[in-house]
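Entry 12.
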Amino acid sequence: MPSFKLTLAYDGTDFSGWQVQPDAATVQATLASAVGRITGEKVLPQASGRTDAGVHALGQVVSFQTGSRIPAANLVRALNDILPPSVRVLDIQEAPADFHARKSARAKTYRYRIYRGEICPPFLSRYVWHYPYPLDENAMQEAAPRVEGEHDYTSFAAVDPERGLELENGSKVRRILSSRWHRESRELVYEVRGTGFLHHMVRNLVGTFLLVGKRTLDSPDITRILEAKDRSQAGATAPPGGLYLVAVEY
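Predicted 3D structure (tokens):
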């Protein structure tokens, strides 16, 4: 059967994450239902990674196979006619038979947005973490590259033996290719690119860098926490609404 590579954007606010769950609205279930209505087949699309409840995507990549001969361009229009406005199919391409959105991925980029203004506009509040309190942003920028490289990121992973372990041996070793904070007007933005991420890893990194900004931690403490391989050494998990899966590379 033909394989398809689909690029998806969604507002995760009203979803209980990507993965199908009993009695809960999820992106995977919503997309599967739409594909089924069009093709008449029972299809379970596979994503590049499972986003959590409240997390958004600008470029989630999904793969599935179907016996339908509907052209890709027509499938884009048909799906967007059925899907809710919070989920949009941006592109669909035919892919090699062995293409798998998660297993074939080589790198991903995530973005986290912190709104620094005193009053957060109501139409923005679903998509940022509003944090108007004092922060040493320069210290956060200095600390960010300390997590780059290949490391065991246990200190920044959720205490969960199953979620986010993308390697068959359950290793928590990943490779972070870049880690940066920068200013965009009233927002402080974190962007991180890596070969893979553990459950809650980006949000735990953000929560820990925030402690550097509050001067509770110093920049060298990030290296110490990383080497400790102990979740209790790192900061709290940042809220989901500010996190976006930006892009997946193959």
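Annotation: The beta strands are 3-10, 46-47, 56-65, 87-95, 107-115, 129-130, 149-152, 173-184, 187-194, 243-249. The CA atoms of residues 127 and 241 lie 5 Å apart.
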